[in-house]
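User: As part of a screening pipeline, I want to sanity-check one entry by hand. Below is the sequence and the SMILES for calcium ion. Please return the complex as structure tokens so I can compare it with the automated output.
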Amino acid sequence: MEASSPRLRGQTAILRTPPIPASLRICMRFYYHMFGKSMGSLSVFIARPSVPRLIPKWSADGQQSSNQSEWKFAEVDLFQTFVYQIIIRGTRGSSFYSDMAIDDI
Ligand SMILES: [Ca+2]
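Assistant: Here is the complex for your manual check:
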């Protein structure tokens, strides 16, 4: 997610998966990069298809990487008894020092 102008504080970038069948043993693993003094937040939610309510599953807020080349690893257990979608949401921080990325999901 590019945080430079014209992006503003609180704006989001959202990835949403197709519906995932219920009762599959799923553990989502990914790497994320959050280096910047005004870093925003990165969150993982699930939601039932066509239902607006987001159920939080994981999040990181503020700078996480200790230098420009450090990627952090995350694991999120997503077993559900209902059909759901995974939503990954990046939120820009207070200034342009807020670029973030995810990889290898
Ligand atoms: Ca930038």
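Points to compare against the pipeline: The mean pLDDT is 96. Residues 12-103 form a domain with the Jelly Rolls fold (CATH 2.60.120.200).
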